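Sample intake — Discoidin domain-containing protein
Collected from: Streptomyces lannensis
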Amino acid sequence: MGVALAATAALITLPTTHVPAAAAETPLSQGRSATSSSDENAGTPARNAVDGDAGTRWSSAATDTQWLQVDLGTTASISKVVLNWEAAYGKDYKIQVSQDGSSWNDLKSVTAGDGGVDTLDVSGQGRYVRMYGVHRATQWGYSLWEFQVFGTTGGGTAPTCGTANAAKGRPASASSTENAGTPASAAFDGDAGTRWSSQASDPQWVQADLGSVQDLCKVDLTWEAAYAKEFQIQASTDGQNWTTLKSVTGATGGSASYDVSGSGRYVRINGTVRGTGYGYSLWEVAVHTGSSTTPPVQGGGDLGPNVIVVDPSTPNLQQKFDQVFAQQESSQFGTGRYQFLLKPGTYNGINAQLGFYTSISGLGLNPDDTQINGDITVDAGWFNGNATQNFWRSAENLAIRPSNGTDRWAVAQAAPFRRIHVQGGLNLAPNGYGWASGGYIADSKIDGTVGPYSQQQWYTRDSSVGGWTNGVWNMTFTGVQGAPASNFDTGPYTTLDTTPVSREKPFLYLDGSNYKVFVSAKRTNARGVSWPANAGASIPLDQFYVVKPGATAATINAALAQGLNLLFTPGVYHLDRTLEVTRADTVVLGLGLATLVPDNGVDAMHVADVDGVRLAGFLIDAGATNSDTLLQIGPAGAAADHSANPTTMQDVFIRIGGAGPGLATNSVVVNSDDVVIDHTWIWRADHGDGVGWNTNRADYGLRVNGDDVLATGLFVEHFNKYDVLWSGERGRTIFFQNEKAYDAPNAAAITHDGIVGYAAYKVADTVNVHEAWGLGSYCNYTADPSIVQAHGFQVPVKTGIKMHDLLVISLGGKGQYAHVVNDTGAPTSGTDTVPSKITQFP
């Protein structure tokens, strides 16, 4: 910690009749968006601390490390912070500032506080300000009647240095480490609870590789008790020859920031004289780059080279569709990415065949604004009539009047059919009725009959159908007018009248000549389509950074830090650092299956524990160096209530291997509460390049630690351990499709705790309440067909655990299941792919 300054606080007695807090000027914080590490209960949310009412309060959970932060909406020069404590006050705490809500600088450290009202003079600039509680004064949490931030916006001096930490998550090394628990990487991981420490001798150093030569302007150091009395901040372009940017003597530890001037790829903290008898120990090192000469990221602009915008008068339109299809029809692991956008109007005689990484969308506010008298077709000619690999394509927001009365949409996973009006029938099988393994429909009207024919499984949500003819194994419906009645005991159907929580995927449309993104409102107990009522709001394109191929992670993060949303145009984006989504209600939308590839073992994307983030329409492809987590929603321990405005993850797909070796310990980790996962395919590749038990190893598909998380349309396949591991309370899943890893070398390789095989879907033993409907797991143990998997599903036997309509299947007799769930359910047998079912457990 830095030099501690005790605040002078006067204890006050609250009036019996509360009045709004008064000040000589209106705080910059009043009425702004506020978030917290936790809330004691629903009656004490973060927003109460910035509402200007001294009779409402925020209070936290009863643990020491808690925080409250406010988003001022723009960069401000901050001069004063006033904290009006309730009886549960902070004894030791910090006032911190950030430009991006992720990297924080200390403005003031308070020790031995005595509650009441603390008025703190500070000096700093940033958009976000927070109270970071270190030690509580009572057995309760932290509680603030009001948290007020004063200063100026617009007239202050612009920051001369970037606020992002260029060293976060970068490769690190050190002259020594005290032990295996204090590695060099811990000083650059962005976690103030982990540290690097050295052996107890002089000199010692720790360094980070920024990945490229950059202009350096500031370094922040947070020392543990074992600090450096004398040290140098050094830079190097090659990691061998060092230039000293700053020499420090007489240091006293704690947190300190040092302005520097120079450039380098490598940054080193070189300790020469220890301040204690121990070694050197740093909680965090933050490196800042750039200067005020770097212009802000601009929103809006054109949609890039791979977005094809057409109208009914576009010449040779059929030829455009045919050209893209010829390139993409069998390009399963290629790099081509395309988005067709159709302006409102009527298109006659069109057959838009969709290959890999091709999306087609109407640009009207309603599907019927864009009318196709023709077809949007997915078939399987490229794969000899087998549609089980027709992945990664989509259709959205238009009307189809099929040329022969029925449109063909023969797809497998990751091929959403959203917000479509089919003025006729819909055939979900390939020509010749070969194998098919889909699929997902949402917010759509099919006037005629849907014929799934050979489709093994399907999920349909908040739609209407004129009829549904058959099904193979697992057909699930929620909120679908015209859906068949449940018959899972004798057939494939699981039907719920409504969807408990849903919010449709954001989409791009034209308002006159201006592009906007429509974000739908949340619906509860929904049934039928959301249009033409279209409850929600529109965001102009100039509030989006339109990301085009070649954009760097640093620029994308800078755009997010400015408060811009992201619109990824079709392409493949290599990331040398994690994308940090920290602002509530941020929209991250992809076109044409835009693909993010994390390099050098970084995570691809982290989402803060904030309200209403919308992630939609993109693919994350694991890199060749192992990432810990490809997508993380909320940090570990996230506990804020987002029930009124949940984060949604829609048509976000994960791939490990197939396009080359890929590695990730965890694919998706959900720590935030109330998240809605609406259609995802999380896939460890079973074919393609870079495929093998260890070559594209990924232990876990989806891990849910947050409470009250809902999954609608969950496809997770082939992971080395658990495909889904659910540890949060009150979780719900509606429709789950799974295949176990084909390439398990033998039973011993997947045996754990005396159990052969990891369950496809495991609810942790600590969970008390969980419910799921329409779940299927299939085994196809091609490497060792003698494997007998203990069960497809594993859940604690408790009154609050309810599992409906589960099945397991052996595909062609390559491996078997001994049970469906736990030790219950008949074993599969033989080669006839006959499912073993349970309609209710327990």
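Post-analysis note: The first strand starts at residue 9 and ends at 10.
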